[in-house]
Each structure stands twice: as structure tokens, then as C-alpha cells.
Amino acid sequence: MSTGRYLPERVMTNADLMKLVDTNDAWIVERTGIRERRIAGDDMGAAEMGARAARIAMEKAGVEPGEVDVIVVSTATPDRWLPSTACDMQALLGTDNAMAFDICAACTGWLYALSMAEGYLMAGRAEIALVVATEKMSSIVDWKDRSTCVLFGDGAGAVVVRRSKGERGILSSYHRSDGKLGDLLYRPAGGVRIPMDSGVLERGDHLVRMAGREVFKSAVRSMAEAADCALVQAGLRKEDVGLMVPHQANIRIIEATAKLAGIPMEKVFVNVNRYGNMSSATIPVALDEAIEQGRLKEGMNMLTVAFGAGLTWGAMVVRW
Ligand code: ACO
């Protein structure tokens, strides 16, 4: 697997947020571990961010655009309803021989996307897959709601996956969802059931709403359970994990999950302090940084876990 990332240049610090809502650096750092996040400009969309990350991953993999067979894009912030962000991204990349589609599983989306790509590769229907997560969370955050606007950031990550035989690759995939808990983290309106109108816009009903405490508790429980199941499926023990790469939502969620899953924090990759929660983009961005920093090495068992709106959650073990 080869990785790439794109982070917008603009940094928004906790001090900057204090100019927008009644908050402070100490509260945000203590409750979330987040110190700053990136914010994409008005002219930057999900397809463009994803394409920038994908070009880097493809270059590292030595893959030409025409060689890509399938593109799976995870995003909760598509540029437009129709066509998919994956197709818009395909046009930017010139990956003309691929099929391209989006999936929506919120913060768990990149893991779901990787599993889908794995399916195409395993079935022999593709040789090379591009698995991208791209999120412009700043466009769906309520900048008047201090309980959510401090959490999120923008960015994109991409991974090129090849079909191969041998020791390395995906060892296990465990994914779940529970639609009954959908209203814990959602956007009330702006889709087809309650279309966008001036009332929706005025009330901010098209923006993210979250029951923070409930989400916190579910996240920890579900990710720890998923980590256990993925390890069992892979036939590995906790001690065999070289690096855990969790969804970066909040340092307290990461620490509590690692503790419950029995993985020491020295083996957990964390960058939520610099980027905040970029929804499904956090894991591929973290993978790219972990490789760059020499924390994720060839032959290592990497455990990745995620949790998001839906509710959705999952874990995978990859021998890197
Ligand atoms: N600055 C200052 N005070 C704040 C802020 C803020 N930004 N936000 C809320 N507060 C206040 C509240 O108003 C409340 O004040 P009150 O006691 O006077 O009523 C107080 O802080 C405590 O609020 P809580 O919501 O109870 O705080 P909590 O300890 O639960 O922390 C948090 C809130 C950080 C959102 C936490 O619940 C959490 O991390 N939840 C998970 C959120 C998350 O990561 N979601 C995404 C995961 S899934 C995905 O990635 C899509």
C-alpha cells in the first residue's frame, strides 16, 4: 500500500476559535487534545483535496492513472449531490480506465472503503484500487455551536492498494453499524426528506448536530470491541500489534479505547492535536504520517479502528 495526504494550508488555532464562540484553549485541549485544525478555502472542494492526496499516493506506488481499476471515495461532504465526488476526482486524475463511486459511512468511511476495494481485488475484478477519504468538515459545521465547531477540521488521505499474494496485506476486516442510533450524530435537514429552504438555512438544520457524551461512550465501547474481533479474526494477540492507528476524533476517546483494547499508548499513533477530527480522512492521513515518521514499518501488524455517525464502526488488521 502507498499513501498520500493533503492538508489545507490555513491553520485555525484554538485562539482563533475564541473569536467565534465562547470557548478557550484550556477547555478544548483538556476535553479533546486538539490544538489546531486545517480549514480549506472557499475554492477548495472534496474532489480537489482527494485528487491531491491521490496523486502523491499514485506517484509513490509508481502507478500511472490509466492503471487504476477502481476508485472508492469516502466522504460526508461531497462537492455536489450528482455525480459522485469519486467521478469528479477521476476526471481530475485522468484515471480513465477505472470505475469510481462514493460511499458514506461518516468517520468509519475509509475503513468501509478499504474493505470494498479489498472485495474487488480478492474477487479478481481489479488489480489496483485507489481508496480515498476527503472531508471538508468546515462546510457542515455550525460555527455558532461551541460544542461541535471546536472538534472538526478539513483534509484528505489516499492509499493505493494492489492485488498481491504473500504475507503482507489485509489480515482481517470487522465492520458494524446501528442505524437506530443515527440521531446521536446527524444533519437534520438539507436532504430530500427535509429539503433545503430558507427556514432550514436560518435554523442551521443542515449542519452537524451531536449528542457528545453518548457518542463518546458508544465510540469507546464499539472501537474496543471491533479491535478485539479484528485481532481474533486475524489470529493475532494484542502483543502482536506493532502500531494502532485509530480514528482521530478526540484524545480521550483514543486513550480510553486503547486502554480497553489493551494496547499501550506508545503503540498508538496520534495526530489529533494538529488536525482535529477530519472524519474519514483521519486514518489515511495518519497512516501517511506514521510511515513518514518511521513508526509504521514493513512487516508490522497495524491495527486500525474507527467510529462515526450512523452509527458505524469497524477495525482492520493489515500486515504492512
Ligand atoms: N468551550 C467551553 N465550554 C464548552 C465547550 C467549548 N468548546 N463546549 C461545551 N462546553 C461546555 C458545555 O456547555 C457544558 O457547560 P455546562 O456544564 O455549563 O452546561 C460543559 O462544557 C460540559 O459540556 P459537555 O458536553 O458535558 O462536555 P463533555 O465533557 O462531554 O465534552 C465533548 C464534550 C468534547 C464534545 C465530548 O462529549 C466528546 O468528546 N464527545 C465525542 C465527540 C466526538 O469526538 N464526536 C465525533 C466522533 S464520531 C466522528 O468522528 C464523526
Give the SSE map.
Elements: E1 2-6, E2 11-13, H1 14-18, H2 25-32, E3 36-38, H3 46-61, E4 70-74, H4 85-93, E5 99-103, H5 109-122, E6 128-136, H6 146-149, E7 154-162, E8 169-177, E9 185-186, H7 198-203, E10 209-210, H8 212-234, E11 243-246, H9 251-261, H10 272-275, H11 282-292, E12 301-308, E13 312-319
Parallel strand pairs: 4-5, 4-6, 11-12
Antiparallel strand pairs: 1-7, 2-3, 6-7, 8-13, 9-10, 12-13
Bound molecules: acetyl coenzyme *A.
Residues 23, 27-28, 31-32, 106-107, 146-147, 150-151, 185, 210, 212-213, 215-216, 219, 249-250, 253, 277, 279, 307-309 line the site of acetyl coenzyme *A (ACO).
Radius of gyration, rounded? Answer: 18 Å
Strand residue percentage: 15-25%
Q: pLDDT average, as an integer?
A: 97
Structure ligands: acetyl coenzyme *A
Strand order of the largest sheet: 1-7-6-4-5
Number of discrete helical segments: 11
Q: How do the helices and strands follow one another from N- to C-terminus? A: EEHHEHEHEHEHEEEHEHEHHHEE
Count all strands and give the number: 13
Shape summary? globular
How far is it from the N-terminal to the C-terminal residue, by CA?
Answer: 8 Å
Regions with little confidence, pLDDT below 50 for 5+ residues? none
Helix content: 25-40%
Structural class: alpha/beta
**How many strands, what sense, and barrel or not for the largest sheet?**
5 strands, mixed
